[in-house]
């Protein structure tokens, strides 16, 4: 009993266990038709993504993320790093414009100082720790250093001999940078940011790493990798890499710095020499990764310790250069349609469900009723939505209120416009949702219905004559539509609102 307790205490003193793990998503922007920040945020909300990492500190994106309930990691792009690492005041300026100016409306929780700097910008290595310190001291000056962590994402390729994990160590030629960096992370209560790509480890292993081991698929016990020094069993590459990082840090005597995985994922398409970049493998990897992280399994070395992870990435980035796989790491295309449906049953509320592909456009929570009414008027008028199901005695009449009626009209418009994300805006009072608002015999467009048959709600034929839903004027309520509304039984609402 006493020994048990001691072991528990020891375990607790190593890496803090108080954090709940989360799944976040990286938002790369190399798309030829990058969605507008408000559409990005609508997608994040619809998919219940509550943690994101940006590769910069784009002002429009930070504004769109304000008051969204989404926690945001911003990044100092590598191009800006040299200047910051050489000047405390440049660092302070960066923090002022990109963090202080947005916080707390935008819940910025960490700053990535560069990205894989040691691999991609080796000449910045010597100023990297200065940059971390300058950014941190600017946060201290603004009294934000407890809320906002400072770190720098490392490529797992700087960890050598990573199997068995207990023998892993950081490339020694980087120790001059890594030792003061770890000292900084420890003294500021921050975490090691690590990018882990079992896809590349698998590809480069020439068959040594089984695909199933990379994809978190169960292996027969006799094929599980066992670390002969620790006798720990490894059932997937991801855990082995995280433990390799813990061991590499311990080798430099840092034993209490937690790990956050800033990137991990799997491409869904690749060139002819990238045969394992498939939709099935990407779906399997990401679905299993999410379940694994959220289950708070931890790793064999630190069971139960959260290893929060940001999936790479939200969108397929079609303008990325390199092999075809480079353009195909995304969970969604630019329209917000899923590339594949994650299998997450049982893993709780993240990235919606197995039903992610059913999307609906509904009124935003707390939207101003007057704005909703104007949008409803527009949809049933110039928007050419067939609003007859909303008439008294028709299936969608009840509940007879502006929110319920707006939901139906917005969703019908959205589907008739091919679910394009800008068809679900209505001056900001509409949002995309993944839960089916159908009720009773009122079947919403996009609903599979309770019988599993696709709802047959055909929109009036759509050619380019339909005005843009963002183009109407909230304050104009032309008599023609007012009369239409009265006919449709909205007279009460019109009277209340005028
Ligand atoms: C930011 O998110 C953290 C973690 O959920 C929460 O504790 C904090 O209150 C949030 N801050 C703001 C300003 O919303
Ligand atoms: C850097 O600037 C901060 C204010 O942003 C200040 O508190 C700190 O002392 C400065 N550090 C150095 C090394 O000059
Ligand atoms: C270790 O890092 C140095 C400097 O970045 C690099 O030249 C060398 O190739 C790395 N060694 C290994 C084994 O990756
Ligand atoms: C780690 O600590 C041990 C024991 O205190 C010491 O012998 C060793 O030199 C230290 N290693 C490093 C890299 O500081
Ligand atoms: C989740 O954790 C429990 C207990 O920690 C374990 O039995 C189960 O296999 C885990 N599930 C997954 C999917 O990792
Ligand atoms: C989502 O649904 C559309 C039709 O509504 C279909 O064309 C598409 O293939 C589906 N996507 C996935 C990933 O199943
Ligand atoms: C997933 O689906 C279940 C059952 O359909 C539902 O109760 C749950 O709220 C859904 N979760 C999310 C995140 O949408
Ligand atoms: C489901 O089937 C029942 C009986 O066949 C039918 O009355 C009902 O309209 C159907 N509902 C949907 C949503 O298709
Ligand atoms: C859907 O509606 C159209 C037009 O109202 C009709 O021609 C078609 O048969 C319907 N399809 C189904 C499956 O009910
Ligand atoms: C819509 O446009 C397509 C292609 O331009 C055309 O083939 C179709 O006939 C048009 N439909 C209507 C109803 O105008």
Automatic annotation (TrEMBL):
SUPFAM superfamilies in the cross-refs: (Trans)glycosidases
Record InterPro entries: GH, Glyco_hydro_17, Glyco_hydro_17_plant, X8
X8 domain residues: 359-444
UniProt GO MF annotations: glucan endo-1,3-beta-D-glucosidase activity
First-level EC class: hydrolase
GO biological processes: carbohydrate metabolic process; defense response
Coiled-coil regions listed: none
Signal peptide: 1-17
Protein name: glucan endo-1,3-beta-D-glucosidase
Native source species: Senna tora
Lineage summary: Eukaryota, Viridiplantae, Streptophyta, Embryophyta, Tracheophyta
